[in-house]
Automatic annotation (TrEMBL):
UniProt key word Transferase: yes
Protein name: GNAT family N-acetyltransferase
PANTHER family referenced in this protein's UniProt entry, alphabetically: GNAT-FAMILY ACETYLTRANSFERASE, SPERMIDINE N(1)-ACETYLTRANSFERASE
Keyword Ribosomal protein included in the entry's annotation: no
Organism: Winogradskyella pulchriflava
Lineage of source species: Bacteria, Pseudomonadati, Bacteroidota, Flavobacteriia, Flavobacteriales
Length: 174
């Protein structure tokens, strides 16, 4: 896969060396709400996932890329999921792992690179994101990249104590 480069970050395919980074993200319980995770992942499962992560997006229906700074520091992950070639659409998700790397424009640049890849390389007509009503930073990020709120899924997620609403945002390739 071609590396997708921006001014401050680049996106690259996952490598076996990303095991510890992916393990840390997947097992960070503070992030589980973002991915509907309900149980920890073992190193073995993540190692198997990384072994198969090189599958073609047309076969796997998903693509996960590492977000890296220009000094080769891996700071996050960005995903294309529910890739639907017939209807030319896919979902997008993003996480910047360490809070100290948030609010620096890395997420915005990564999202711009991935949306451009989806539209120009994969020839998708639309991309979408599902974001909790309470995740103001992600809502701002996606809206600043041309995504529009198109619906609110009421009581969509249960956190063990209460239900929360989730927006669906969409960007259509004009």
């Amino acid at each position: 896969m071609v590396t997708l480069k921006g001014e401050h970050i680049y996106l690259r395919a996952l490598e076996p060396e990303d095991l510890d980074f992916v393990f840390k993200i997947e097992n960070d319980t503070s992030l589980w709400e973002l991915s509907d995770t309900q149980a920890p992942y073992s190193r073995f499962l993540i190692k198997q996932y990384l072994k198969n992560a090189q599958q073609d997006i047309f076969e796997a229906k998903q693509l996960r890329l590492a977000i890296c700074t220009m000094d080769n520091n891996t700071i996050g992950l960005i995903d294309v999921f529910d890739f639907n070639i017939k209807n030319k659409r896919a979902g997008i998700g993003i996480i910047i792992q360490d809070e100290s790397n948030r609010q620096k424009g890395y997420g915005k640049e990564a999202l711009e690179l991935l949306v451009n890849y989806c539209f120009k390389t994969l020839h998708l007509h639309q991309v979408y994101a599902n974001i909790s009503k309470h995740n103001k930073a992600s809502l701002k990020l996606f809206e600043s990249n041309g995504f529009n709120k198109i619906g609110l899924k009421r009581d969509w997620s249960f956190d063990g104590e209460k239900f929360t609403d989730e927006y669906i945002l969409q960007r259509i390739n004009d």
